[in-house]
Specification:
Length: 136
């Protein structure tokens, strides 16, 4: 089963670089530049994981994630927050069930690894992702 990641980030360059890296691992990628665009895509495609930038142009990150969690079928979908700020999971309400927080300053390779590791941990992991070895 092909895994699909929805990347939500206002940076076109970030979306494109992550898309290229993830596609090289057999992951299908959808992207949105805003929370509203992302919410419109939730029921159009099966989504295995969502990444969101902490800073979104049209909504606060926490409110966006709460909207995802309140959408039927996405209550437990893994969500990764990508940020340039020093942020810990403690800064988010535990009910949002954030899977990980990844620092953008670590680079696209590290962000890709974070996404692939999280996909590999999900119950419906594909064989390709089970064999994934992160860059150290």
């Amino acid at each position: 089963m092909t895994q699909t990641v929805l990347i939500v980030d206002s940076s076109r360059a970030t979306r494109k670089m992550l898309e290229l890296k993830l596609q090289a691992h057999g992951v299908e990628v959808l992207h949105a530049a805003s929370a509203n665009q992302a919410l419109a895509k939730l029921h159009r495609h099966p989504i295995s994981l969502i990444t969101t930038a902490k800073a979104l142009p049209d909504e606060q990150c926490s409110a966006f994630i709460a909207g995802i969690r309140n959408t039927h079928g996405f209550e437990n979908t893994p969500i990764i927050v990508l940020t340039g700020d020093e942020v810990s999971e403690a800064s988010f309400d535990p009910e949002l069930k954030i899977s990980r927080i990844c620092q953008k300053s670590l680079g696209i390779g590290a962000l890709t690894d974070c996404i692939l590791e999280t996909l590999a941990e999900s119950p419906e992991s594909s064989q390709i992702l089970r064999n994934f070895m992160p860059i150290i």
